Amino acid sequence: MAIARLARQAKRPHGFCVKMTAVAIMGFCFIFVWSMFSSSSTSATTQRESFDDIAEPVAGNTRVSRPHTQSREREKEKHEPGRVDEKQNGESDLELKKDEKKINGSVSLVVTEHESRRKDKKEEASLERKEKDDGTKKLPNEREKDNQGQEESGDEEPGKEEEEGEVVDGKEEANGGENTEGNGYVQGDGDLIQNVDQESVEKVEHESAGSKSTGKMRKIKGPVFDPNAHYSWRLCSTRSKHNYMPCIDIESGTGRLQSYRHTERSCPKTPPMCLVPLPHEGYATPVHWPESKLKVLYSNVAHPKLAAFIKKHSWLAQSGEYLTFPQNQTEFKGGVRHYLDSIEEMVPDIEWGKNIRVVLDIGCKDSSFAASLLDKEVLTLSLGLKDDLVDLAQVALERGFPTIVSPFRSRRLYFPSGVFDAIHCIGCSIPWHSNGGKLLLEMNRILRPSGYFILSTEHDNIEEEEAMTSLAASVCWNVLAHKTDEVGEVGVKIYQKPESNDIYELRRHKNPPLCKENENPDAAWYVPMKTCLHPVPSAIEQHGTEWPEEWPKRLETYPDWMNNKEKLIADTNHWKAIVEKSYLTGMGIDWSNIRNIMDMKAINGGFAAALAHHKVWVMNVVPVHAPDTLPIIYERGLVGVYHDWCESFGTYPRSYDLLHADHLFSRLKNRCKQPASIVVEMDRILRPGGWAVIRDKVEILDPLEGILRSLHWEIRMTYAQDKEGILCAQKNMWRP
């Protein structure tokens, strides 16, 4: 009633004050009613407290902590004064799903990162690594943190899950305009019918002037292989057919190409999910070692240009179904043994099999060089160049000699620095002096201090010889001997790399210059060659400061630069026991058929060392995301390469008799978006009738067994204990 009376008075001309009073009264009434029905002033606090069990949003590469670990997070914040309190970012930061929090106790969040906070993020990551490693130190020869971000321990217990940092040193820093999608990160369907709830990875790459920084990785827990997936396969339809090498052969483009191989390693954007066919002439069980030194089955290495090559060379011949290698016929006139003896006479310090153990042979021509050195206990790794259209590297592998295929033009070879005792090149027609001498500087990088570079030519070219002499002098290589062998009719020149940096300072013209201090000489994966000289190692913690012990002592000799010698010794004894008590006798493998072996995830070379005195050789592969233990492997007198298993390996199909993978797949599920492509690659490089021994977690081995069965492999043995297991499988000689 009072309000109605006031309304009637408001219509009068003198009712302005009454109008204002009415408005005020109505406002107070509204406030009173709102206060009665709204929540209490403490409700906002109550709502925030109800989310205390959810951790603060953190960087994309950092795990969300559980409630009982929040005290540890607060302790980290004390060390991070520049960290922004992300609780103030609004209500949206609090809207986390409870089921996300229950995925193995952690979930990764994607957060936009500002440039000014990168330093704080690195400090946080280093603190977490310190807690996880429990004070474990890295080996001194590991790659630099800036280039690697490694977090895997080389001597960790089998099955122990680790976090792997992106360790791609200079990946495609200078790609020369070629395909840069070589890392296999682009997922493709191929011929795979699969619904995989696998662990995905998000890379956040930061570019800096002239270099690439380490990518951040986001982890989402999930199986490597979907146990309910179904697989169907088809044969590859490619130009190179049964000799298909995905990262070397060109299988794209239109028109007829003069060459079917890349000038540099270049992988398909989508990892191949097809199976390489067998040769059209048929494939049979390879000739066993050591008979394979003298003959191999011609059908196993058939090539369109091989027949024409045989007619022009006397060191190989076709005899019925075999390709033979007469002992008295080699590329070396006078015989390869005479050639090796003459080198040793020219430089007596070259004691084959003692002082010289690991040799790199540039170009695959006459494999008798590697065969004769093997008789002297020298392990020769042959480098098959991409322009070898006759595929002689495949012939070398079929004969049972260590061989790898790689282009050699503008990127570094996949070896660490200072590991080869000697490098040999005969008639390889490589322009060492071109492009600022990059190719010779690459030889200087991988050659051991005081190591030998042996260059042999049949016909001397005065201009090339003068250019080579000038270039060798500029890198301070000493000419130990230069002689033309009257019997072999070949000119041999032997150079020696300096053993210290003193001579570099005495050069009048500092060209090529010394490399910068932050230039990692061991960085080799997709790293362009540099026109600079790497200083000779001088610190005791660097590998290459001393010449190794004579063979076979060096196999179990650990110099001062090797950290944690006790763990290395324990690792050697561990693998020696496994090989002797299990692999050689307990798996049903006929070792008389085994010659070429690959350890797909070598750490310190313990597996290869355990087989060193058997009639086999092992290619030790150190994944690029793992600690850099490859210098240790070479120091022990063994051979190996760096590789990223998200890509295809640099070798021919049907190259190996046995593949060994120790916890490889559990380490790769955070890198490769299509882990099944690794199984396809194993099928490509393994010979029919070959074996695979896989050690990993049971949750990985179970679906992996299904994939192998879909490839018509025979599962010969499975064993599991405490969530760890072993799977032994054999590839069939045929497929339906």
Offer a few descriptive terms.
seven-stranded mixed β-sheet, Rossmann fold, 20 helices, 26% helix, alpha/beta
Structure explained in plain terms:
It comes from Salix dunnii. InterPro entries: Put_SAM_MeTrfase, SAM-dependent_MTases_sf. Belongs to the methyltransferase superfamily. The protein has 736 residues and is an alpha/beta fold. Among the domains are: 331-536, Rossmann fold (3-Layer(aba) Sandwich), CATH 3.40.50; 565-731, Vaccinia Virus protein VP39 (Rossmann fold, 3-Layer(aba) Sandwich). The strands form five sheets. The protein has a seven-stranded mixed beta sheet. Strands 17-16-15-18-19-21-20 form a seven-stranded mixed beta sheet. A hairpin with a 2-residue loop joins strand 20 (714-721) and strand 21.
CATH superfamily heading of the domain at 331-536: Vaccinia Virus protein VP39
Distance between the ends: 98 Å
Give the CATH topology of the domain at 331-536. Rossmann fold
Rg (CA only): 32 Å
- Which CATH architecture of the domain at 331-536 would you pick? 3-Layer(aba) Sandwich
Number of strands: 21
Strand % is 15-25%
How would you sum up the global shape?
globular
Please give the share of residues in helix.
25-40%
Low-confidence stretches: 39-169, 172-217, 253-258
Sketch the major β-sheet. 7 strands, mixed
Mean pLDDT over the residues? 76
CATH class of the domain at 331-536: Alpha Beta
Distinct helical segment count? 20
Major β-sheet strand ordering: 10-9-8-11-12-14-13
**What oligomeric assembly is this protein in?**
single chain
